[in-house]
Design goal:
Strand content: 25-35%
Number of helices: 7
Distance between the termini: 38 Å
Length: 368
């Protein structure tokens, strides 16, 4: 066949395939996770360590409203590059003081017409910070939800053992230990199951124990959190082997750490995920140097979204995972001072956005 004929044949095939692809229509939803970084009201709660966020210490009502304004700006924009018609239909969140701050957030003028509803439980965390799920009730209908406590205890033998000193991470999320029981109080894991446009899907929202005391010494606490998370996932798979699950949160570990790789058993390559497996798209991002928070001139991707195997594949007759991203707009980055180049956090009494960047993923389904 002559060259011109070959080119003509290729062009016809391309046009046919392109036209067929153009005929397919997809519905898209965004699911996000965001660490709100100390979303505290101005009221001193005698049962928690919230004194830093009171008017006496500079956390005024004006600052609180500015913080809500900042967060609402971010939420309304997440995912709109590919889904300009709507903000996330489901948002996992952490570092929330109580339900009231969430009520104030969803009633913000930027968000009120989205109709976000709230699922929240008080956690035993001594700073009073919790996890929660926000959802647009127009699209998602929860049918069950529960908080699953993480029971971890101070290991006296491990802590007394002489080990090579490690540099302690700077964090205000220090672990609180009960003097009698030695229990370490931390956040519960929130499990919500419901229907996204009529299709069952489960969400697990996490905020795992911090690296207070150093990464190595505190790792067993997050390994326990990962094991608990996997237990929840396995229970969902037992009920429904085709369960669609998204576990998300601030894990205080990277995708390659033991708590994620061995705890959740998360796989970084989609093609390697087997039945009952979990796929972590953040692992590839981590290896590319992409992160959600900066520390000592490097980036970590503690904020992660991990999906179950039934959300993979190319049969788009039902909801499927499409892609995940970190939401990183210029206005979210500090351009001067000590934290230059890092996410714009609360600093010197001035409310920022968060010291973490949000993460999000798209779910798609063919509609014709």
């Amino acid at each position: 066949m002559k060259t011109k004929e070959l080119l003509a044949t290729f062009f016809v095939i391309f046009v046919i395939n392109h036209s067929f692809a153009q005929e397919k229509k997809f519905k898209i939803h965004t699911v996000a996770f965001y660490n709100f970084e100390n979303l505290f009201d101005t009221i001193n709660d005698p049962n928690t360590y919230d004194e830093e966020y009171t008017p006496t210490n500079g956390w005024t009502y004006k600052n609180y409203r500015k913080k809500l304004d900042n967060l609402s700006r971010v939420i309304i924009e997440i995912g709109t590059d590919e889904n300009p018609s709507n903000s996330p239909v489901v948002i996992g969140a952490c570092e929330i003081e109580n339900r009231q701050v969430l009520e104030d957030l969803v009633k913000h003028p930027k968000l009120i017409d989205k109709g976000y509803k709230i699922i929240h439980f008080d956690s035993p965390d001594k700073r009073g910070i919790d996890v929660a799920l926000l959802y647009q009730e127009k699209y998602f209908t929860p049918v069950s939800y529960t908080n699953v406590p993480l029971y971890i205890y101070k290991d006296a033998e491990r802590n007394n053992k002489k080990e090579k000193e490690e540099t302690e991470d700077v964090t205000d999320d220090n672990l609180e230990v009960d003097n009698n029981t030695k229990r370490i109080y931390t956040r519960d894991q929130l499990l919500v199951t419901g229907y996204l446009d009529g299709e069952e899907i489960s969400f697990i929202v996490n905020h795992w124990p911090s690296r207070s005391g150093g990464e190595k010494k505190s790792s067993p606490n997050r390994e326990a959190a990962g094991a608990l998370n996997r237990t929840i996932i396995d229970s969902l798979y037992k009920i429904n082997p085709k369960a669609k699950i998204i576990t998300m949160g601030d894990l205080n570990d990277d995708p390659t750490n033991k708590s994620v790789k061995k705890g959740i058993k998360a796989i970084g390559k989609k093609e390697d995920v087997k039945e009952f497996g979990m796929y972590n798209p953040m692992e590839k991002m981590h290896k590319q140097g992409i992160g959600t928070l900066g520390y000592r001139d490097s980036w970590n991707i503690f904020d992660q979204m991990i999906v179950s195997e039934p959300l993979l594949g190319t049969n788009y007759a039902s909801w499927k995972y499409w892609k995940a991203q970190v939401f990183k707009k210029p206005y979210l980055i500090q351009n001067e001072g000590r934290w230059k180049g890092y996410p714009k956090r609360n600093s010197n009494g001035v409310p920022g956005f968060s010291d973490h960047l949000p993460v999000y993923l798209y779910l798609i389904k063919q509609v014709n």
